[in-house]
User: Fold this.
Amino acid sequence: MNNQRVYDKKSEGQELGHFTHRNEAFDCENCGLRIKPRKSSCRNHCPFCLVSKHVDCFPGDRANPCQGLMDMVSYQLTSQKGLVLEFKCRRCGELTKNVAAHEDPIQPDSFDLILKSQQMVKGTGRP
Assistant:
């Protein structure tokens, strides 16, 4: 039997399959800047230093006990999601991906930092 909770509409803290919609402000634990919520989606990394925090098992659930900081290590361009950033946890080494917010009108990701990261390898997003 499938025990997934799925809601017709999503609002703060509600689940949609394995995705819990959370679009909250936070303070970056790497650079200390205050990060505002995204206008059109959820943000999981700092747009200024491109560091994330390993807090989720599934997006938005805040259930990961690791809590390590995650550095952006590579990126790839996909036809479905556009620019996707890959992060590696400093504590446990897990790799995760998240869509870049370089076009966000409030606090866009630093496109210069994205380009200065390890170079993209076509099709894999890995150096």
